[in-house]
Design a protein that fits this description.
- This protein is an alpha+beta fold and 349 residues long.
- The chain has a four-stranded antiparallel β-sheet with strand order 2-3-1-4, covered by helices on one side.
- 64% of the residues lie in helices and 9% in strands.
- Strand 2 and strand 3 form a beta hairpin.
- It folds into two domains: 222 residues, no CATH class; 73 residues, Alpha-Beta Plaits (2-Layer Sandwich).
- It is elongated.
- Helix 9 packs antiparallel against helix 10.
Length: 349
């Protein structure tokens, strides 16, 4: 039977559709974590939902109007516009889905009180109590809410997108400074937790809420690391086999990765062999191992973890704004110091 070969253009479309679905699913999962667990228990752990809780603390006490979801939606839109202005259209298109799906899902869950449908009412009521009675429900909400939020963010990252919000601020900081996105994100989360503690000094459970907010942020980070960072590690796969041509075609056609062929000589046997090298994702190691075992059980295969892989098919090369400027300045200075060389160069027409 002939194998079904998907044209490159259709494969690209299918890949984009898959990425969009992952981002949508990630935003929905994050909205469930925030609206079902974290916001109803007033746990400030970072992100736009924490801004909604902080603003709602003042508005609800003054007017009795619940505005958490409204503030969340406003923050998402404002931060998206900021990203559009500073980072450009390409970045904003990638976060447009999050700007729409996350606040809409959050508001739907929050306004329809889906927590009652899922039997969460006693959790919300217990979290309002003073003393040890509130700790259990708060820990439950923080753990499951943090995990769902982290899982949602990880899914969005797997779809080459993001959940928007303060991730946009972190991306802007990373672009125009040497501060990594993870570091700036941590600073923002800590600032929100501290701010939440300061404005709720008169709340009996203030210290407990602040500590549980930190725990929630940690659970979220661990969830992201487990589901995205560790799962997205790259592996360099070296294969020596008599069936190297079949393995080479399998990696290219079925796994959609490129390969490099090396001529090697066995140190013990002195025989000439072919080595096939492929860079794959960690989760693909089982797939290629099973295929090799099915056609050549005597093949020699080694897997080496790589910290990062840049290039076609993997993470693109990224030059920060400041480094680009330094590179252009260096070229300009070099042209001024060597005018004769510049004059001798063709005009490019």
């Amino acid at each position: 039977m002939s194998q079904l070969v998907i044209p490159p253009q259709q494969r690209k479309i299918l890949s984009e559709v898959g990425n969009v679905l992952l981002v949508i699913l990630g935003c929905i999962m994050m909205a469930f974590g925030d609206a079902l667990f974290i916001a109803p228990c007033n746990i400030i752990s970072g992100g736009v939902s924490s801004v909604g809780i902080i603003v709602n603390f003042f508005v609800y006490n003054a007017t009795g109007f619940e505005c958490t979801d409204i503030v969340v939606a406003a923050c998402q839109v404002l931060l998206w516009v900021l990203g559009l202005v500073v980072l450009g259209k390409k970045f904003s298109i990638h976060t447009l889905i999050a700007m729409i799906v996350y606040p809409a899902t959050f508001s739907l869950i929050y306004r329809l009180n889906l927590g009652e449908l899922f039997g969460m009412t006693h959790i919300y009521e217990a979290s309002l109590l003073e003393g040890p009675e509130a700790i259990g429900p708060l820990l439950f909400a923080a753990t499951f809410g943090g995990f769902l939020c982290g899982a949602g963010i990880a899914l969005a990252y797997h779809g080459n997108g993001s959940t928007g919000g303060f991730n946009i601020v972190s991306a802007i900081i990373a672009r125009y400074s040497e501060i990594k996105e993870s570091a700036s994100s941590l600073i923002i989360d800590v600032a929100l937790i501290v701010l939440g503690a300061l404005i709720r000094l008169n709340v009996p459970n203030n210290f407990v809420l602040s500590c549980i907010g930190i725990l929630c942020a940690i659970v979220c980070s661990l969830s992201i690391r487990f589901l995205y960072v560790d799962a997205s590690q790259f592996v360099i796969c070296d294969i020596i086999s008599e069936k190297y041509e079949e393995i080479n075609r399998y990696v290219i056609d079925e796994m959609d990765h490129s390969t490099t062929m090396f001529d090697t000589v066995g140190g013990y046997t002195g025989e000439d062999r072919k080595l096939v090298r492929a860079v794959i994702y960690q989760e693909e190691t089982t797939k290629i191992r099973e295929f090799i075992a099915s056609i050549d059980p005597k093949a020699f295969v080694s897997f080496t973890k790589a910290k990062t892989i840049n290039g076609e098919g993997f993470e693109p090369f990224y030059v920060r704004h400041k480094k680009k400027k330094l590179l252009n300045d260096a070229k300009k200075e070099n042209s001024q110091q060597n005018p004769a060389e510049v004059e001798e160069k063709p005009d490019g027409n």
